[in-house]
Write a structure and sequence with these properties.
Blueprint (H helix, E strand, L loop, with lengths): L1 H16 L17 H14 L8 H16 L3 E9 L2 E10 L6 E7 L20 H17 L8 E7 L9 H5 L13 H8 L7 E6 L8 E4 L4 H13 L6 E7 L6 H4 L5 E5 L18 H17 L1
Parallel strand pairs: 3-4, 3-5, 5-8, 6-7
Antiparallel strand pairs: 1-2, 2-4
Helix pairs in contact: 2-4, 2-9, 4-9, 7-9
The structure holds zinc ion.
């Protein structure tokens, strides 16, 4: 941000040299990504809804909440509806700085897994989804609030995907009623539809998923675009986060970046898969920290505003 101020300062100095008082120019407010706000408001508002599986009333209420927040922060909100095996699915995305430059998409899934199938005790219960769902959404919503649109060099979309987390389950798990289709679902159903229906090819897609763990270890993900990972992890190191953004490969994930990679789009998955509560009933808000959300948010804000 400070580097952005330099040209304006020099310009004003030049005006003074020829003896004219500069006209006052409005200075855009500098807002930094606030991890406390992301946690206190955006994680908690999602958790208040209870589990948010695809097709549920809570899922649709969250889609409405996301769209309302985007509009409040000055973004153009778009909804995208589809049906998959009889279940309604809704993606929501926000656009800003349209036409400014090549498109960058940041994405997160907002649905939560309807069955905690990694939970030894309660595998039929839904996942609360504090980290696996709410953390990524909270980071994107706080970015919607904090990003300085005038500093952006790119058109930016914030995409909130439905139906990421039903892979290997079926419609009976989702609808809890009979009769239902027992065919197993794919992962990233909403994102696949979104990627297949893009009208412009983004320069980059960055997915955030499970990034809120208080014990945060984010490694390079093996299928992701390597130069873009290196760029973002270098920003993290400059911000003092190299303990949490670890510049080594560890996991190879199929996630919401995959539908974009399959279409030749440069995409990365920022994910902390070292999370013992993954797909269990223990994925609750006490496992997520404001500091973890802040690190991810500050890296993304710095990247977008300093380009
Ligand atoms: Zn999941």
């Amino acid at each position: 941000m400070l580097r952005k101020l330099a040209p304006a300062f020099l310009w004003l100095s030049g005006i003074w040299l020829i003896g004219c008082a500069p006209a006052p120019t409005p200075t855009p407010a500098i807002k930094n990504f606030d991890g406390d706000y992301a946690y206190r408001v955006f994680v908690n508002e999602q958790m208040k809804l209870g589990p948010r599986p695809t097709g549920s009333a809570a899922n649709r209420a969250l889609a409405d909440y996301i769209a309302a927040q985007l509009k409040q922060f000055g973004w153009t909100a778009v909804t995208q509806d589809l049906q998959y095996r009889g279940v309604p699915i809704r993606n929501v995305y926000g656009k800003i700085a349209e036409g400014r430059g090549p498109l960058i998409i940041l994405g997160a899934h907002f649905d939560t897994r309807p069955r905690a199938d990694q939970d030894a005790k309660n595998p039929d219960q839904p996942v609360p989804g504090a980290n696996d769902g709410a953390s990524g959404v909270a980071v994107l919503l706080e970015l919607a609030r904090a990003l300085n649109a005038s500093a952006l060099k790119n058109e930016v979309w914030l995409a909130f995907f439905d139906a990421e987390d039903n892979g290997e389950l079926n419609a009976c798990d989702l609808l809890q009623k009979q009769p239902c289709d027992t065919t197993r679902w794919a992962w990233s159903v909403g994102t696949e539809y979104f990627a297949a229906n893009l009208t412009a090819k983004p320069e980059f897609v960055v997915i955030v998923d499970m990034i809120g763990d208080a014990d945060q270890d984010i490694y390079y993900e093996m299928s992701s675009d390597k130069p873009l990972q290196e760029q973002l992890w270098a920003i993290a190191a400059r911000l003092g986060y190299s303990q949490n953004f670890i510049a080594q490969f560890k996991w190879n994930m199929e996630d919401d970046h995959t539908p974009f990679l399959r279409r030749g789009i440069r995409a990365i998955d920022i994910i902390d898969f070292d999370y013992p509560y993954w797909h269990t009933t223990q994925d609750t808000a006490d496992k997520v920290s404001a500091a973890s959300l802040q690190r991810v948010g500050r890296v993304l804000q710095t990247w977008l505003e300093a380009r």
